[in-house]
Design brief:
seven-stranded mixed β-sheet, Aspartate Aminotransferase, domain 2, four-stranded mixed β-sheet, binds pyridoxal-5'-phosphate
Length: 396
Amino acid sequence: MKPTELEDRYGARNYAPLDIVIERAEGVWVWDIEGRRYLDCLAAYSAVNQGHCHPRIVDALIRQSRKVAVTSRAFHNAELGAFFREVCELTGYERALPMNTGAEAVETAIKLARKWAYTRKGVEPGKAEILAFGNNFHGRTTTIVGFSSEPQYRDGFGPFAPGFELLPFGDGAAARAAVGPNTAAVLVEPIQGEGGIIVPPDGFLAELRDVCSERNVLLIADEIQSGLGRTGKMFAHEHDGIRPDVMLLGKALSGGLYPVSVVVADAEIMDVFRPGDHGSTYGGNPVGAAVARAALAVLQEEGLVENSARLGEYALRRLRGIEAPQVREVRGRGLWIGIELVESAGGARSYCEQLATHGLLCKETHDHVIRFAPPLVIEREDLDWALDRIERVLTG
Ligand SMILES: *Cc1c(COP(=O)(O)O)cnc(C)c1O
């Protein structure tokens, strides 16, 4: 059987991938089993900001795997402390808590915020509330999908955990009005990624910051997709000049090699966790720590944040210059661009299929948005190659 047939025959049916079977990858390029080459403009939802199979990160993975891979946190391991220091120095927080997937980091932040609310803020047991936003994406666990506004993410998976309220994304006044004495935290994506690359109005995050500071509420920034250079800053909240109380990183934290996520916060918040309160068998393992250290070093030493800012601005300008009646809006920051099509264009998926035949891998989000998010190692020449093809498909 062909690989696709094997997947169909034996795999659960929770995905509907494009009909391309990737066999290997390097930098911004991937090759299918027939040897056809594609420019990867999804970058595994920003997990491969550093480019596929970056030699330095691969090397860290192999070297650490040969020494010791998993210890569990019943013991110390020789890589973890250095990872903590590096991620704290990069983010400017005092403490780091490592997990594996992004959803686990979100779950960790929810537990952290609730425990903080009960032990520091004095919220009555069982009453803590977390405010989040419509059109959010924070992962796929039952607690998280319980406060999704996307019907397909929720339908059939209840009952859900109580204690969450959704507000309109971009509306600072609504957030101000919704905060009450039991509010533990506001959980926000600085730019909504899966929601369609939605950049909130100027001042929105600053207003959230003000409300949270005034009312003693934690501001949690989910930077799992927006962080680590994707938007042309190391962290997307820097565009707004604010500092969240808690920040979540994942995806590119391990450069696409191995799942590593982290929650960072200052000690006065993070120290509500005591030994035994929370954990993960693989969280903080030496391979993950070594891979994340290499991934962060590559981001910084190769100037990928600057590249994202510079080429992102260029790409945005070129895409906005395309005259095509089916384009409603081109928006984004850094190398994170959404091309929203009008309803009558018939959905973004068929455009992504066409782009694939031209050698470009893209993935639609929210039916009508073509998302453009190549690895941040992309060079101007390859970017032009991609933009030429997008222009051809949009105007063809
Ligand atoms: C991808 C993503 C997550 C979930 O990460 P997983 O590793 O898939 O669990 C959470 N939040 C945001 C903003 C994401 O983009």
